[in-house]
Write a structure and sequence with these properties.
Modified residues (Pyruvic acid (Ser)): 88
Number of helices: 9
Largest sheet: 9 strands, antiparallel
GO cellular component, one term: cytosol
Bound molecules: S-adenosylmethionine
CATH class of the largest domain: Alpha Beta
Organism: Saccharomyces pastorianus (Lager yeast)
EC number: 4.1.1.50
CATH superfamily of the largest domain: S-adenosylmethionine decarboxylase
Shape: globular
Radius of gyration: 20 Å
Protein name: S-adenosylmethionine decarboxylase proenzyme
Order of helices and strands: EHEHEEEEHEHEEEHHEEEEHHEHEE
CATH topology of the largest domain: S-adenosylmethionine decarboxylase
Distance between the termini: 35 Å
C-alpha cells in the first residue's frame, strides 16, 4: 500500500501561509499528550441530527488555539476528518475524537471550550451531574514521561496536577503510572469508567477497537537524518518553485523512508482506499497522517534533533483481521524499528478482546526482538479494555 503524488493536491483544507512561516525552536518535547474522548460508543448511538464532523473548521481552530497549536491541513474521508497540526494530529469521527499534541501544548485547556462548542453546535449535552461534571461515554488521557517537564505549562508539569484537572471535568477517573517509576521510564494513563447508561448491544459496539502505539527515543543518527531538510542532509532542500514546501517535502520523506508501505496491500479488499498527508518542518521534523479503508488511521511524528530525538507511531488498524491473518503487529513493529532504530522504545496496545489472536501474539512480541532487552512488561485488565505495555532497550 503506497501513496501517489495526487495526495499533494487533494486536501480539504490547507493553510499555505502557516506552512510557509513555521519555524523551528530549540530543545523540543517530542513526547505527546494523547486525549481520546468517546462521546458515544458508536455513531449509531448519537441521538441528535448532527455529529462531531458537523463542527466547522473555524470552531476547531478556536478550540486548538487553547491547546496552542494550529491546523496545517485536513483531509476528509467517508468516516473521519484527519487534521495535521503544527504540533501533531487530530482525528475526528462522528462520535469520538483523538487529539495528539507534542511540544509545550496545553491539551487539557481545550476541554471546557470543546464541551461548550458541541453543546452549542450539535445540541450534545454531557453536563448532566449536579456538580457540573461531564459524562461522555469514555475518556482516555495518556502520555509517557516528558524529556523536559519544566518547559511545560503549569498543569502539564506533573501527572498529579493533570489528573486533578481532569477530575474537575469527569467523575470516576482512574489514574495509572505504568512501568518502573524513574525519571525517564514510565507512562501514565487516566481513564474514566464507561458510562453504563449509553445504549448497549452489537450495533452500538466497535468490536475491532484496537490502538497500537510505539514511542521511540535516541533514534539512530542516520535514520533521524532522513527527517532533516537542508544542506548536507539526505533530503534535498525544497526549491522556490514548490508551492507548499512543507507538504512537498513531507511527501518526499514518506516515500523515501517507505512509511507509506507499513501495511500490506492485502487488506480485506485490495482496492481499500489510502489517504496520506505529511509535513516536513524547517529545518527538521516530520508529521504524517495516513487513512486506510476510510476509517482506520496511522500517524507518525518525528523529532530528529540529536540530544532529544524522538519518534512516535500510533495506529487503530486491526491489522491481523483486515489482512486476514497475513500481517500482524510484530510485522508492523519491525518495519517501524527498521526506519528509526531507536535505542529505547515503549509500546502500548489496547484491545477489548484479550482472547483475540492479535492480543495473544503481542504478549510474546519481545521474543521476536533479539536486538532488544525487555525492561518492563505489564498487562492491565481495565474492565472493558485490556492494556499491554512493554518497554525495551537495545542490547549493547
Ligand atoms: C511537530 S514535529 C513532530 C512532533 C512529534 N510529537 C514527535 O514525535 O516528535 C516536531 C519536530 O518538528 C520541529 N519543528 C520545526 N518547526 C516547528 C514548529 N513550528 N512547530 C513544531 N515543531 C517544529 C521540531 O523541532 C521537532 O523536531
Amino acid at each position: 500500500m503506497t501513496v501517489t503524488i495526487k495526495e499533494l493536491t487533494n486536501h480539504n483544507y490547507i493553510d499555505h501561509e502557516l506552512s510557509a512561516t513555521l519555524d523551528s525552536t530549540d530543545a523540543f518535547e517530542g513526547p505527546e499528550k494523547l486525549l481520546e474522548i468517546w462521546f458515544y460508543p458508536h455513531k449509531n448511538a448519537i441521538t441528535t441530527a448532527k455529529t462531531l464532523r458537523d463542527v466547522a473548521m473555524d470552531k476547531w481552530i478556536e478550540i486548538l488555539k487553547l491547546v496552542k497549536c494550529e491546523v496545517l491541513s485536513m483531509k476528509k474521508t467517508q468516516e473521519l476528518d484527519a487534521f495535521l497540526l503544527s504540533e501533531s494530529s487530530l482525528f475526528v469521527f462522528d462520535h469520538k475524537l483523538t487529539l495528539k499534541t507534542c511540544g509545550t501544548t496545553t491539551t487539557l485547556f481545550c476541554l471546557a471550550k470543546l464541551f461548550d462548542t458541541i453543546e452549542q453546535e450539535l445540541s450534545w449535552k454531557f453536563q448532566t451531574t449536579p456538580d457540573g461534571k461531564y459524562a461522555p461515554f469514555k475518556v482516555f488521557y495518556s502520555r509517557r514521561c516528558f524529556l523536559f517537564p519544566c518547559k511545560q505549562a503549569a498543569i502539564h508539569q506533573n501527572w498529579a496536577d493533570e489528573v486533578d484537572y481532569l477530575n474537575q471535568f469527569f467523575d470516576h477517573g482512574k489514574s495509572y503510572s505504568v512501568g518502573r517509576n524513574d525519571k525517564s521510564n514510565h507512562w501514565n494513563l487516566y481513564v474514566t469508567e464507561t458510562d453504563p447508561s449509553m445504549p448497549q448491544g452489537r450495533e452500538y459496539t466497535e468490536d475491532d477497537d484496537e490502538t497500537f502505539e510505539v514511542l521511540m527515543t535516541e533514534l539512530d543518527p542516520h535514520c533521524a537524518n532522513m527527517f532533516v531538510c537542508g544542506p548536507d542532509t539526505s533530503t534535498p532542500a525544497p526549491t522556490e518553485a514548490n508551492e507548499d514546501k512543507g507538504h512537498n517535502l513531507g511527501y518526499q520523506m514518506t516515500k523515501k523512508t517507505k512509511l507509506d508501505d507499513i501495511y500490506l496491500n492485502s487488506s480485506q479488499d485490495s482496492d481499500a482506499s489510502f489517504h496520506h498527508d505529511a509535513f516536513a518542518f524547517t529545518p527538521c521534523g516530520y508529521s504524517s497522517n495516513m487513512v486506510l479503508a476510510e476509517k482506520y488511521y496511522y500517524t507518525l511524528h518525528v523529532t530528529p534533533e540529536k540530544g532529544w530525538s524522538y519518534a512516535s507511531f500510533e495506529s487503530n488498524i486491526p491489522v491481523f483481521d483486515i489482512s486476514q491473518g497475513k500481517q500482524d503487529n510484530l510485522n508492523v513493529l519491525l518495519h517501524i524499528l527498521s526506519v528509526f532504530q531507536p535505542r529505547e522504545f515503549s509500546m502500548t496496545f489496547f484491545t477489548k478482546n484479550a482472547s483475540s489472536p492479535s492480543f495473544q501474539k503481542i504478549l510474546r512480541i519481545n521474543e521476536s526482538l533479539p536486538e532488544y532487552t525487555k525492561l518492563d512488561k505489564i498487562v492491565y485488565d481495565l474492565d472493558d479494555y485490556h492494556l499491554f505495555y512493554m518497554k525495551l532497550q537495545k542490547k549493547i
